[in-house]
Write a structure and sequence with these properties.
single chain; 242 residues; mainly alpha; Arc Repressor Mutant, subunit A; Four Helix Bundle (Hemerythrin (Met), subunit A); two-stranded antiparallel sheet; globular; disordered N terminus; GntR_C
Length: 242
């Protein structure tokens, strides 16, 4: 067979040093039983044990932070936010143009597919303790919105608590991969006061459906929220470009 007719093969991809570091850290977390809320070993110790630079460890942990897996607290250390194991799937998503309306609408299409199903699964599967945590996050979000007129961070934590209650870590990781884009957008939401404020009552509707163990009701409320945000983005963009 001539070289021209041979099937094309792609080169074997060698993991980058930070990917290899994350795999090793995940193995350490699993082996030692470090759980959410607990601190990881210091960057210096990780670098020495893995024989890599501290900058490699820091870049690796920043990737996890971007996915919502850890929280890096200045002067305190890095804390695990969700369970991690060697079987975990991490799906970093790069969205460079958070101010691009088309990009935001694309991410909303993905969220529509994910959040409706996540809410339905949560209504079927969440434990009493998890439902109580969702309710606590909702109370915090509503109080912040009443006092300040917005609550982007609190809203995100509310939705994260629903994803977490599905007991399917892939839901939470995919949503976390979109976090930066939406947070940058919320810093300047198309100059629209109280952007998406009309969605806030439907968060309570969704929570009430979860409490009732009503998957269809929870799904419907989640989709209503996404549809309203979609409409508000389109309306604000039309006014801005007139």
């Amino acid at each position: 067979m001539s070289a021209r007719l041979r099937p094309a093969l792609s080169p074997i991809r060698t993991p980058t040093r930070d990917e290899a570091a994350l795999a090793a850290i995940a193995e350490h977390v699993e082996r030692t039983g470090i759980g959410p809320g607990e601190r990881l070993p210091p960057e210096r110790d990780l670098a020495e044990q893995l024989q890599v630079s501290r900058s490699t460890i820091r870049e690796a942990l920043k990737r996890w932070e971007g996915l919502g897996i850890v929280e890096m607290r200045k002067g305190s250390g890095t804390y695990l936010k969700v369970p991690v194991s060697t079987a975990s799937i991490h799906m970093p998503l790069t969205i460079d143009r958070a101010s691009d309306v088309a990009t935001l609408l694309h991410t909303l299409e993905v969220r529509r597919a994910l959040e409706g199903e996540a809410a339905a699964i949560c209504a079927r599967r969440a434990t009493g303790e998890q439902i109580a945590e969702i309710g606590r996050r909702l109370d915090i979000m509503e109080a912040h919105h009443t006092k300040y007129g917005d609550a982007p961070e609190q809203d995100w934590e509310f939705h994260q608590s629903i994803f977490r209650a599905t007991e399917n870590p892939i839901f939470e990781q995919i949503l976390a991969s979109m976090r930066d884009a939406f947070h940058r957008f919320w810093e300047n939401p198309l100059d629209m006061p109280d952007f998406a404020g009309r969605t806030f009552p439907y968060h309570r509707v969704m929570y009430d459906a979860i409490v009732r163990r009503d998957p269809d009701g929870a799904r419907a409320a989640a989709l209503t929220i996404i549809d309203m945000v979609d409409e508000d983005i389109r309306d604000a963009d039309r006014r801005r470009t007139r």
